[in-house]
Amino acid sequence: xxxxxxxxxxxxxxPNAEQQVFFAKSFGCSRFxxxxxxxxxxxxxxxxKTTLNNTPAQYKKEFEWLKEVDSLxxxxxxxxxxxxxxxxxxxxxxxxxxxxxxxxxxxxxxxxKGTVAITKNTVKLPKIGHINAKLPDKINGLIKSATIxxxxxxxxxxxxxxxxxxxPLSKTHSNIGIDLGLTDFIVLSDGTRVxxxxxxxxxxxxxxxxxxxxxxxxEVAKTDQRKLSDSKNYQxxxxxxxxxYEKITNARKDFLHKLSFSLxxxxxxxxxxxxxxxxxxxxxxxxxxxxxSSWSSFTTMLAYKSEWYGKTLVKIDRWxxxxxxxxxxxxxxxKAEWPLSVRSWNCPSCLQENDxxxxxxxxxxNQGLLLAKQSKTVGATGLA
Length: 384
Ligand SMILES: [Zn+2]
Prior knowledge:
The chain is α+β, with helices and mostly antiparallel strands. The protein has two domains: 3-166, no CATH class; 175-375, Nucleotidyltransferase, domain 5 (2-Layer Sandwich). It has helices spanning 17-48, 71-91, 198-223, 232-266, 277-281, 286-308, 356-375, and strands at residues 3-14, 105-110, 117-118, 122-125, 129-134, 142-150, 156-166, 175-180, 186-188, 193-194, 269-273, 312-316, 344-346, 353-355. Helix 3 (198-223) packs antiparallel against helix 4 and helix 4 packs across helix 6 (286-308). Bound molecules: zinc ion (ZN). Residues 326, 328-329, 331, 347, 349-350, 352 line the site of zinc ion.
């Protein structure tokens, strides 16, 4: 059965000078109303121990310039603030934070009967009209909302949320286990190793080189007793670092999208380990942290794409001993037998030689198939 989904399209915008001013105002007003409403809520709570239900409209009399921007942008701030509060109370997330200038400049608006639309090379937005844009080949379906953002690199993007109908992918009668590799990005139970793309590691090297230069320029400004905001060389380099960083983020996302889609397309059941990435990212080096956060985005993509396309994703408990079990005979290595930091080991029970990552991915697949069978969510995938 076809499924209706909300798909996000990230599109580069090329606003002219006037449009850039409008965006800057919109970012500023969104940030202002967030901070103002949050501060008032906090004060109100301190005074009365009750929650203040404030709305952007209340502030428009006192701060007339709020009327110059898209009122939906402000309405979305109210909604986001409400969501942040509910997350804090219901899910134990952190308390909503104040927003600083230049950090995540963005605002969101909604499509009301064509107020947000696209042409071949423009995106139309409320109150500002058509902005030059670089659009992907085809966007089909109803546009629901648009989030406009300005990155530290100075580039503008719009993320369009589009109602799209997708058809499930046909069954392949093939299943796969995925292990997060030690040196490769992932290792599959069929023996395939997917390396981290070379261009990504090249870009990462470039990033750390540029960051070193940035640190030096910071030192120079300090020695000369100049403010960083007055140091042209420092600002120039800061922009350069932001551009490389953005390039890495985009390239990495692209790589993960292609990889996750190809796995979903070629297999019916996909088994992965449910790793505690939050704990992993702490106390790690940059490269490792990037790979860990890749893993987190990757599993998120696998999760929603498997739902979109009618496939099954099984997450294995992170305490499942995928690395310490022989995939040949099921022997569980004892502490004494467990070879630390060894790429391959011979099973003391059946003597099979096990590559560390491949063996783990096979165990993940077997465990995944077992769980999938138990939950009976895979009746038609040929697991019987
Ligand atoms: Zn064995």
